[in-house]
Every structure is written in structure tokens, then in C-alpha cells.
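Figure 6 in text form: structure in, sequence out.
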């Protein structure tokens, strides 16, 4: 289920994005990117529609993933 990013409070959105970019596997390679910059980049992707928030009802987990370009 997709969750509209603009339906979340700023505090909830920030916490969700911060938790997401802090997960293992979201590293940027050999460059050290500050957490605040990563959060800013993901929020921009959500605003632009190139990323979406997805909630899995079965597992109760939330994730951020690339938007499906075929859904437009």
C-alpha cells in the first residue's frame, strides 16, 4: 500500500526517512555523505514523485522505494 508522503506530519516523515537512510545497504559507496544530506535527498525524491513510501500490511513494515514509472 502506498502512503502519500504529504499526509504525514513533518516529524513523522523526517523520522521515517532518517530511519530508512540509516538502514544497512543504503550506503553511498566510497563517499561519506552526511545523514542530513541523505534525508534531504530522499525527501526531494518523494516530493518529485521519483520515490514512494510503501507500507506492507502483513509485516507491518514501511519502506521507501523508486516510484513505478509505468503507474503514471
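Output sequence:
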Amino acid at each position: 500500500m502506498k502512503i502519500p508522503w504529504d499526509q504525514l506530519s513533518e516529524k513523522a516523515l523526517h523520522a521515517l526517512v532518517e530511519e530508512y537512510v540509516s538502514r544497512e545497504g543504503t550506503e553511498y559507496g566510497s563517499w561519506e555523505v552526511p545523514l542530513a544530506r541523505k534525508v534531504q535527498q530522499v525527501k526531494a525524491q518523494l516530493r518529485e514523485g521519483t520515490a514512494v513510501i510503501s507500507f506492507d500490511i502483513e509485516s507491518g513494515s514501511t519502506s521507501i522505494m523508486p516510484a513505478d514509472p509505468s503507474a503514471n
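Caption detail: Helices lie at 10-22, 35-48.
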